[in-house]
Design goal:
five-stranded mixed β-sheet; 23 strands; about 20% strand; globular
Length: about 500
Amino acid sequence: MSYLLGIDLGTSSVKSLIIDTEGHIISVGQEDYDFDIPQIGYAENDPMVWWNATKNTIRTALAKGKIIPSEIKGIGFSGQMHGLVAVDKNGQVVRKGIIWADQRSSEQINFVKEKIGLEKFSKVTLNAPATGFMLLSLLWVKDNEPENYRKIDKVMMPKDFIRMKLTGKIGTESVDASSSVAFDTAGRHWAWELIDELGLERDLFPECKEACDIAGEIISEAAEETGLTVGTPVVYGGGDQPMQSVGNGLVRPGYVASNIGTASQIACCVDRPVYDPQLRTNTFCHADKNIWTILGASLNGGIAQKWLRDNIFYKESYKKLDAEAETIEPGSEGLIFLPYLCGERTPCLDPLSRGIFFGLTIKHTQAHMVRAVMEGMVFSLKDGLEIFNSLGVTTDKIIASGGGAKSPLLLQMQADVFEQDIYTTESKEQASFGAAICAGVGVGIYDSLAAACDQLIVMSPVVTHPIPENSKVYRQRYQVYKQLYGRNKDLFSLL
C-alpha cells in the first residue's frame, strides 16, 4: 500500500494525518499546546514545543493506522501563517517564535509607512503591514533585541521549522512567504527592494520554492525520533489557510471557504493577483502557482469561544455551549458581540480594537452571551464576504471548514447570515488533508492539484440552507454590528 502524510501545525495543536492514495483517512494523531503571553499584546511559542508535539503525533498516526513507515510515499505541510522563527548558523532557535496573534510591532508599522510609503509597499506585497507578520516581527527584534538579531542566520515561518527538523534543510515557499509581507506576491519572490530599503540583510531570507516542490528527504536523526523512513520525500507545503482551501477543493475561482478555527477566514481563489486598494483583506499566493488567494482574515474566531468557555463560564465542551445557545432565538434578543479580543485585521486593520458586548439588559443570560459570541464570529466573516463582492470576486459556492463545520448551529448561522447555501466536505481535517494532497502531487502520484482534488475531495450530501426568517433578523443586526467599531474606534486607544 501507498500512503501520504499531511502535518498541520496550528496555533493550539498539531495534527498528523495519513491518507491512502484514494483519499481515505487512515489515521490522525493530534497533540495540543498553548502559546505564551509574556505580557499583554505579546504572543510567542517555543518552536521545540511544536517539534516535540509533531514527533508524538507522527508516531501516533503510524501506530493507529498500523502503517509500515516505508509505505509513506510523501509528506506535506500546513502551518499557522505569518509567524517569525529565527535560527542561528547551527539551526538552533535564537528566541521564541513570534506568532500571528502578536501585536507588539505597531512602531515598526509606522517605520515601514514612513520609510517606504503604504501605497508603494502594498503594490508590491498586495497587503498592508500588520502586527504579527514576520517582516514586522523581525524589525521589532532588530530594534529591541539587537543581541538576538545579530545571532540570526535565517528566518522562516513556523511550519518551515518542522520541515527543517525532518530534512535538515532550510527553505520556504511562496504561499507562506507571501504572508510575511516581505514578498512580491504577484511575482512570487522575495521583495528584495523593500528588504533593502528597510535595512534588512538579504541573506536572512531562505530559498523560496512552490508548495508542491520537493524540499528534501527524511534524515536519519528525524527518522529515529519520528519512526519515519530515511529518504522519504518531503514537499514544502504551505500556510494553513491556503492548504485548507486545497483540502476543500478550492483550486478554481468562484469557490469560497468559510473557516472558523482559532482565527477565522473567508477565502476565495482568483486567477490573477487581485487585492483590495483599501487593504481590508489580504492577497496571498495559492498552492497552485497560477492562482492566488484573497482572504478576509478575522483574528477572532474560535479563540473568542475559547475565551468565553475558559475564562467566563468554564463549560466542559463546545457542544454544551452550542446546546445553550440553541435555547436563544437568532439575534440574541438584541445582544451583539464585537469579537475583537485580539485586535482585528479584516475589515479594520487595528491592533488596538477590542471586544464589546453591546445591548446588554437585565434580561440577558449566559445563554444569550454564548449565542451572541457565535453570531459575532459569523458577522466578522460576513465583513470579508461583502468586501469580496465589492471587488467583483465571484462567490458562487461557500464551503464551511474548521471547527465551524463541525457545529450544526454554526453552519446554520453561516447560511442565515450569508444568505447562501453552506456546503461541507466529508473530510473534517481539511488543512492536513490539503497538505497530504500537495505531497501526492509533489511525488507524482497526481498530475496536478486540480486533478487530485477532483479525485479525492468528496462533498457531504447534507447542505445547510438559509432560513428566511433568521436571515431577516440577522440582516438588521448586522447593520448595527457594522457600526460598532467605527463608533468606538477613538475610545480603544484610550485603553
